[in-house]
Design brief:
The complex is a heterodimer of chains A (367) and B (217). With 367 residues, chain A is an alpha+beta fold. Chain A has helices at residues 3-12, 50-58, 106-111, 119-128, 144-157, 174-190, 202-208, 226-230, 236-241, 340-346; strands at 16-24, 27-35, 39-43, 65-70, 73-77, 82-83, 91-94, 162-166, 195-199, 211-216, 219-224, 246-255, 258-264, 269-271, 281-286, 291-294, 305-317, 320-327, 333-339, 353-358, 364-365. In chain A, 25% of the residues lie in helices and 35% in strands. Chain A has a six-stranded mixed β-sheet, sandwiched between helices. Chain B is built from eleven helices and no strands. The N and C termini of chain B lie far apart (39 Å). The chains are: A alpha+beta (367), B mainly alpha (217). The A-B interface holds A 58, 60, 86-93, 95, 97, 99, 101-103, 112-113, 115-117, 140, 154-155, 158 and B 112, 114-115, 117-125, 132-133, 136-137, 139, 216-217.
Amino acid sequence: MTGPALDDALRTGSAMKLAVRLERGAFRLDVDLAWNERVAVIFGPSGSGKSTLLEAALGLHPSASCQVRLGGQWLEDPDRGVRVAIEDRRLGWVPQSPTLFPHLDVDANLRFGLARGEAEALDRAVEVLELGELLRRRVDALSGGEQQRVAIGRALASGPRALLLDEPLASLDLGLRARVLRYLLRVRDELDVPILAITHDPDEALLLAERVIVLDGGREVASGAPADVLWSRAVLPVSEALGLENVYEGQVTGGGESPPGFRSDAGLTLALPVEASRGERICVGVRAEDIVLAVDPPGRISARNVVPARIARCERTGADVFVHLVTDAGGEALVAKITATAADKLGLCADMALHAVIKAQSLRRIA
Amino acid sequence: MLSITLLTLRVGAVATLAILPFAIALAWALARGRLPARSLIRAFVALPMVLPPVAVGLALLWLLGRRGPLGPLWDGLGVDLVFTWWAAAIAAAVVGFPLLTRACEQAFADTDPRYEQVARTLGASRTSTFFRVTLPLARRGVLYGILLAFTRGLGEFGATTLVAGILPGRTETLALGIYSRVQLGDDAAALVLCGVSFAIGLAAMWAGERWLRREPS
């Protein structure tokens, strides 16, 4: 979004403008970002300046030259002589490590910012993040995932105008990541607070964001719809190295007599390798190189998922071809990575009908 | 003996309480603030720790006495501090100040500033953050400093003899009392006072240790 539409959104909505210039030794951060989506994710490898950018928005880098605007209000702008104090910005920050106050219990941590927030905000946070059971616990008796949930809850309970998440899952091991990611999706779906998250995890960016902004070496590299940006030629070297895959949000179907299946929100159905309870909302991922493409429908085959699809476009990078497909059922985007030789042999071209073959075993539950 | 003990405790307590806010403020500024010439300030604060106590006493005598540079001030206020228990408390405060400041500075420096930043983003002002987050997180170090300053004050001798003298019932603390009894050849009484010192010191440190142990970091 550009021009008058963005200006309008900046004046009224949850839109954010964030321009930061900062030099620290050899590192130079110089970005000028603006977006109107409620949930934006800044994606980039470590050392790309993401955390610094977030801290600058919070007012924690007095030496940075910053312009920060949220909705209709300038929080910082040297030209207008505006610099709102850290405590008056009302930005709910969840730093990379949860940083719960160790001298307070969970309840007191959640209530720390309550003077500013409203009891209602606290109740909602406790409900959405399912913190009720934890209230009387000491913070050092919490698991890493619970600490992260409390930290998110504490930020939400302070009644923030926006939630700023710094790598919310990075400090967690894989199992806990999936659980905390589910809670983040609940926060996204059940509350209407704008969210700005930073991450180097493509799954997280794809699932959470309405807009992804890619940062590398202190500069903006790309910005746009998550899948478009992360699968783009410019970003692919970075996003692939960080584990980019196809991700789908949906729920578990079947169960009981029939084997468990997965149905994405758009309507793509897949056989699942794991036991899961029917109706549960989950997210699954499958890597582009784990997808086999067949021009003719395969006959007897062990792979449990044969998904009819149509080619949207093919992108060649070196010896690889990324085949962008749209599934017939649900119209979900699906990207397969095959060798250029295979692509040539099959004579792939746009609009060609294909069968994407996905082993149930290569589906991974990510939330 | 009871009066000597009570006077000693009073001198130590008054001295420690009087320097506490200043020591905490200075320690905070040294640990987090952007003070110029920090090393010089630290060196200056440490002086009473490294000077011979008698030299500190002489300097205090000069400052507190009517013939010193502040003499007109004391005359104007109509107070005479020298050879009162106040002088003993001031001596204890001066020698305790570096210990308390050092311990507090270390405690503040060991506190992760990230907690303070989070508190600010949650709406707490600088002052509120200090009292709700920094001080509670640094409490172990601060308490340790209080114990050090208090017990150092209880045992102060060199500087105290010069500014407070050894006036039985007025300025005679345990340390001074032990010395004067030894001088008089009353070793038994000196040993009793010694035992009292021992008991107070042990009780103070033991209570502190217990509190520090009980509290998780």
